[in-house]
Amino acid sequence: MSVKSDEIIKPRSPFNAVLLSLCMSGLGHVYCGRLVAGLVWASVGAVAGVISLGMLASGSLAISWIPMVATQMVSAIHARAIAKQCPAEYRLESWNRWWVYVLLACLCSVGGLGHGLVVRDQYVEAFVIASNSMSPTLRRGERILVDKTAYRSSAVKAGDVVVFANPEKPSMTYIKRVVALSGDRVEILDGRLQINGEDIDGSASKTTPDFGPMTVPDYNCFVLGDDIDDSKDSRHFGPVPLATVGGRATVVYWPPFRQIHTPGLPAEVSSTRDDQP
Asked: Which of 21, 64, 133, 234 is the catalytic position?
């Protein structure tokens, strides 16, 4: 078979198609001459990554990897099948160059970054714990994910670990545990934390200074650090407006993966109040 002198003929390798697809969904398809299919698979891969991240933030650790990994695998299998169907005398398209693959990967990374910024602002955000005030639940240096959608359809509950703007310094983000809601009476007396007169076991110690009593104002919550004797919290800066609560901490993703514990609290405290917005 005769070919033009300026045409480059190279057979498509199924192995290379799979390898490129595992690097980024869609690259294997571009390698096989399917540019549009490659761009579609790249978009599907980006969506799958966001879904996996959202599942991880919601605490679905065991299955959060499935959307992203499944997309990569199906993309690789499809690209391999296309590569095997390509003729032995495959004529390279104008985009079948290594630098095009790198450029596509960079463009997808930039698009992914922009998409990631939207996800961080609206859905899930990662934080690094800067102190031991939430020990032993959270320790300095641990990485966590915060679900920013947690309170769009439900109210803040006692026991939730939340991030919020410090009432004294709104530019600073704090993380503490909600122990009381609007209308609850909070008091620390003789080393015992009491909510509406009921002791909350393990929440204070003999060295904890007395506090209160205080009734939490409407549309506010009262927060404490789990290490109450080494925490700056609502005892110092007052109740936290619910409007400044940015989300619920759900998962420690490093080290290692684990869900953040929410302890049992008295029913009258942990129930959702009707006056919560």
From this structure: 133
Distance from CA of residue 24 to its chain's centroid? 21
Beta carbons within 10 angstroms of residue 33's beta carbon: 18
The verdict on whether 176 is a catalytic residue reads yes
Q: Tell me the average pLDDT across 159-180.
A: 92
CB of 161 closer than 8 Å to CB of 262: yes
Question: Bridge-partner residues for 145, per DSSP?
Answer: 126, 251
| Distance between CA atoms of residues 191 and 264, nearest Å | 19
Q: What SS3 string covers 130-152?
A: CCCCCCCCCCCCCEEEEECCCCC
pLDDT score of 112: 55
**Residue 5 annotated in active site:** no
pLDDT of 3 over the 70 cut: no
E runs forming strands in the chain: 124-128, 143-147, 161-165, 173-181, 185-189, 192-195, 198-199, 211-215, 220-224, 240-241, 245-254, 258-259
How big, in percent rounded to 5, are the helix, strand and coil portions of the chain? 35, 20, 45
Q: What's the token pair of residue 50?
A: 């966001």
Neighbours of 99 (CB within 10 A): 8
- Count of residues for the chain? 277
- Distance (Å, whole) CA 195 – CA 188: 9
| Helix axes of 98-122 and 35-57: crossing angle, nearest 10 degrees | 30
Backbone phi, psi, residue 229, to 5°: -85, -5
* Active-site residue (options: 157, 176, 231, 234): 176
- Non-local (6+) Cβ contacts of 49 within 8 A are 67, 68, 112
Task: DSSP for 109-127, please give it.
Answer: HHHHHHHHHHHHHHTEEEE
Strand order across the beta sheet in which 192-195 lies: 198-199, 192-195, 185-189, 211-215
pLDDT higher than threshold 90 for residue 184: yes
